[in-house]
Amino acid sequence: MGVHSGAERVLAGLDPEQRSAVTAPAGPVCILAGAGTGKTRAVTSRIAYRALTGDIAGRHVLAVTFTARAAAEMRSRLTVLGVQGVQARTFHAAALRQVRYFAPRLLAGRAMPELLDSKVRVVTLAAAKVGLRADRAAARDLAAEIEWAKSSLVEPGEYVVAAAKALRETPYEPARVADVFDAYERLKRGNGVIDFEDMLRAAVWGIEEHPDVAEQVRNQYRHFVVDEYQDVNPLQQRLLEAWLGGRDDLTVVGDASQTIYSFTGATSSYLVDFPRLHRGATVVRLVRDYRSTPQVVGLANAVISQARGTEARLRLELHGQRRPGPEPELRIFTDEPAEANAVAARCRALVAGGTPAREIAVLFRTNAQSEAYEKALSEAGVPYVLQGAERFFERPEVRQAMIALRAATRSASVDTPLPAAVVEGLSAVGWAPDAPPPGGAARERWEALAALVQLAEEYAADAEAEPGLTGFTEELARRAAQQHVPTVEGVTLASLHSAKGLEWDAVFLVGLAEGTLPTTYAKTMEQVEEERRLLYVGITRAREWLWLSYATARSPGGRARRPSRFLPQLDRSGGGERAGGGGPARRAERRRPQVVSCRICGATLLAGADRKLGRCPTCPSDIDEELYERLRDWRQRVAGAQKVPAYVVFTDATLTALAERKPGRTEELVAIAGIGPRKVGLYGDTVLALVAGATVDEVCSQKTSEN
Known about the structure:
- The protein contains 30 helices and 18 strands.
- The chain is α/β, with parallel strands linked by helices.
- The strands form five sheets. A six-stranded parallel β-sheet has the order 3-2-6-7-1-8, with helices on both faces.
- α23 (about 525-540) links the parallel β15 and β16 (about 540-550).
- About 45% of the residues are buried.
- Its EC number is 5.6.2.4.
- It is an enzyme of class 5 (isomerase).
- Keywords: ATP-binding, Helicase, Hydrolase, Isomerase, Nucleotide-binding.
- GO terms for molecular function: helicase activity.
- Belongs to the helicase family. UvrD subfamily.
């Protein structure tokens, strides 16, 4: 196959926007790619098209990704397209390769220093040197702060001011964190080791300070592609600019609406400002969603349409390309155990109906929420795997807490209420029921132990449970044993952050209540908007079937809470239903909101007028003009006889909906938003007669004779 025919084969099957991205001229190109729009296909096709047309050589291309999995997928696709020699690597892998290669030259013949695989051990020693006793969770939080600072190009002496400017919630006083940061750097140098940020800095230093290294690197790599550009941090951007050396053959791909890692130092500003920083840049928007049904896409659009702030400037409105599917479901439960049991029951039904367990995911805001779903799935006999975290009872803090609670059984008073006894027992591992500590890892540890207190409250409310702390510790051991059963394939349990980049046929988004999503720790507008984007990412993980749910209380009889502010105002028609096969006397589920879809394109409808019409405002109307005029004439006569404004009988929007949808039965009539039982009783038979072809004179004379 010749070069020309190979290039034509690359273009085959691309949509118009993808084709524009692929054939864009050399120079700065920004591909704004929404979820499921085929960004990997577009970017690999661009590389292949340019290589096969002779515009570039594969060996001169460096494609940078954020995960090894994404890099491997890119290499695989390029091989299929017939292009060899392209280097597709993560930032760290690319930097490591270069630093190792140039180390003898840069370090006067010495080999590259040993690379730390984790900062925690050295950070723990650094904290001790400055008088801080940091447990593992605190050390992880300090390590995260140091990583943020180094990724943001902040030195120890600059940390206090930079943290204040960035509104960082620090695990200790900023000055103390700066002391640990400084001690950490000194310890590393003394031990002759470097961390991952040092390696990136070394790659930058090698190019910026050594002209011979810069010449060799830039001669090797002349064309650059960066995936997930919204997740680049200042250090990575500095390395990218060093590689470029003032050249502009750069293609970046990103989606500002999927910016969810700002706490690590990632910033979407480079993506947002790309056209301004690269004059004459080609900007292409990929908006055709091939992953999700129009119903899921419509809901995602509705959620992100309310976004504010910098990222919202590049917001994309997606257009679903798949056939219509089931409506997203919104479920409301009385408490979290009921919610978890209902999710487990539906997972079991999906698996029984033929959906592979690996194609189902339950997504939540924090890892501490996983316990209820681990338990419910175990009891329902549904296998599961935990993505990006340890199972609840395998977490070190939970194992330590169970040992402490077993020890507490020897001295616990029978008169002490169980939750209070558990709180007292957890004091042995340093847990207190006041506000959680700052820092992500420390807070996650606190929340995991708080989950044990919540379990104690639920256990105490169970009249059939063995009373007391001894019975509770035995129950915890039973649950732990259940969850230790190894599984090869199962339903995925994951936090929303861990779910980024993945997709499933069926997705459960759970715990969508205020205080959880958005978390209570989101205090600024920017933090709240990142929480909104988390929900958007969660919704766009679903290919076909989507469930959204929240519980009005954490535990039975607990304090009431409100649904997440990010949930659209869905149509709340439709009756409730028992959830999760609970007891016959208990109705665990509240009224069941339904999402209304466009009857023409299948997109989810959120606006009241659109739901009434049953179609998007941009979809073509199929109104029966003659029927509409008869309905208007009839409404005018009825309003005159009743001496009320015409809209009191029916609004213009309702008449339009009637003339478009032409209901033939009472069930179809009440399906139109705004026509309730009262209107059906007053006008239902008359409207159905008009739709069936009766004249206004006929229905009015019949009404007169009946009266």
